[in-house]
Write a structure and sequence with these properties.
Elements lengths: L11 H21 L2 H10 L2 H11 L6 H6 L4 H11 L5 H18 L12 H16 L2 H6 L1 H7 L5 H26 L1 H25 L1 H24 L6 H22 L17 H19 L4 H16 L1 H12 L5 H29 L2 H21 L9 H8 L10
Helix pairs in contact: 1-2, 1-3, 1-10, 5-6, 7-16, 7-17, 7-18, 9-10, 10-11, 10-15, 11-15, 11-18, 12-13, 12-14, 15-16, 16-17
Length: about 425
């Protein structure tokens, strides 16, 4: 039987447009609006692609297996099979529909429970691919791209982040073109290799170039000075505890900047900020230190940008294209909805945790440690893909079900 094209790949298109729009609109808004109001507009314009996405969802057909098994609409189910499998002839379509009906008939002997030994492999695989998808650091890169690119010393990090959105769009289409040609596991090999290369080079760069530490400390100090100035101007309500925390973080950032410029490897001017220096003057000093460190970096500042472009391309070709297709294929028909829910839950829980932890971690640790951690996770993903991940290309859902979650019928005596 020929490979079955999975229509779930089609929903990736509007989601990728959201990421591209996010980068482009954030750049425009960031240059047109004030710092105080820009974030509100950046958040508000998200409603437009969300509306487009919602409308496009109404164009998706019902699952042909649901139409045949649950709705008892065989003709409609077969018609959907024809649309999503244009390479199949009529006999193959009818055989596919018959295999779905046979699988549903066998399903009457199964338990309706999800957490069973029979589904241990699909559950484990869904959890791992969803967890690794986020442990690559993809949402950290997308959400905090301007911050991370600023650490590399780029002058206009918001504009540079647009290149990441364009890369995501282009290579997602490359991934969609290759997924049924090379297979899910091969694409994950390619993606993992790109992850490891880009994240590893970024980690080495942040550990090797003292100028990157100066840029990072200067950004934190300038941000701390700006926060203290807003507090002094009485902008918004600030609780006493928040005021104390802001002042403490400001003092720690000044100290970190002085220590980073005092390193022997750093060739720039040493920065010393007296405690009594007004925040406005501190901000000017830090901006000058950042410009000097960026100048000393020279072309090396492009390393982080190039690595992030490679990272986004690796994600778009690999895990970003594979995850939802793979999860939808490995669960049997009667538990596919629950399996998709598990994968989505795991994916977004890890996304939320990493997004919450990142701002704290980037202040407490060198950025090199963050890249090294994500690189180590991608090495584990490559090992998992090589040793455990099944290849589902060119196989029907019923064939995959028989391999990963077979029905074990009791043995009867003759």
């Amino acid at each position: 039987m020929k490979a079955i094209k999975n229509p779930s790949t089609h929903v990736l298109f509007p989601s990728i447009l959201v990421n591209l729009k996010q980068s482009l609109f954030c750049y425009i808004i960031g240059n047109l609006c004030s710092v105080e109001t820009a974030w509100r507009w950046m958040l508000g314009v998200e409603a437009l692609p969300a509306l487009v996405y919602t409308v496009m969802c109404f164009t998706l057909p019902e699952s042909p297996r649901w139409l045949i098994v649950d709705a008892k609409k065989n003709a409609e189910g077969i018609e959907v099979f024809r649309k999503v499998n244009p390479g199949m002839n009529e006999q193959e379509i009818q055989e596919l529909a018959a295999s779905v009906e046979a699988s549903a008939a066998a399903g009457t002997e199964r338990t309706s429970k999800f957490w069973t030994k029979r589904l241990c492999c699909p559950i484990l695989f869904a959890f791992l691919i969803a967890a690794f998808n986020q442990l690559s650091g993809i949402n950290i890169i997308l959400y905090f791209a301007p911050r991370l690119l600023s650490l590399s010393g780029l002058d206009n990090a918001l504009a540079a982040s647009i290149s990441l959105g364009v890369t995501n769009l282009i290579f997602t289409f490359v991934g969609l073109w290759l997924i049924d040609k090379l297979g899910r596991r091969t694409l994950l090999y390619i993606g993992s290799a790109g992850y490891i290369l880009s994240l590893g080079v970024c980690a080495i760069a942040f550990f090797s170039f003292s100028e990157l530490k100066v840029v990072s400390a200067a950004i934190d100090t300038a941000g701390g000075a700006e926060q203290v100035m807003r507090i002094d101007r009485g902008e918004g309500y600030i609780a006493p505890a928040d005021r104390e925390r802001a002042c403490a973080e400001y003092a720690a950032a000044r100290k970190a900047l002085a220590e980073s410029t005092a390193q022997e490897r750093y060739k720039g001017a040493r920065v010393s900020i007296p405690a009594e220096l007004p925040p406005a003057e501190v901000k000017a000093v830090t901006e000058q230190a950042k410009l000097e460190a960026s100048r000393l970096l020279g072309s090396a500042s492009m390393i982080v940008l190039v690595c992030m472009i490679v990272f986004i391309a690796a994600h778009a070709i690999g895990s970003g294209t594979i995850i939802w297709v793979f999860i939808s294929e490995i669960f049997p028909n009667d538990q596919r909805a629950s399996g998709q829910a598990l994968g989505s839950f795991t994916h977004w829980i890890f996304a939320a945790l990493l997004t919450l932890i990142f701002p704290i971690a980037i202040k407490a640790f060198d950025a090199g440690y963050m890249f090294a951690f994500f690189c180590a996770m991608m090495i584990l993903q490559l090992i998992w893909a090589k040793t455990m991940m099944p290849e589902t290309r060119g196989r029907s859902l019923e064939e995959i079900e028989q391999e990963l979650s077979p029905v074990r019928r009791p043995v009867t005596e003759a």
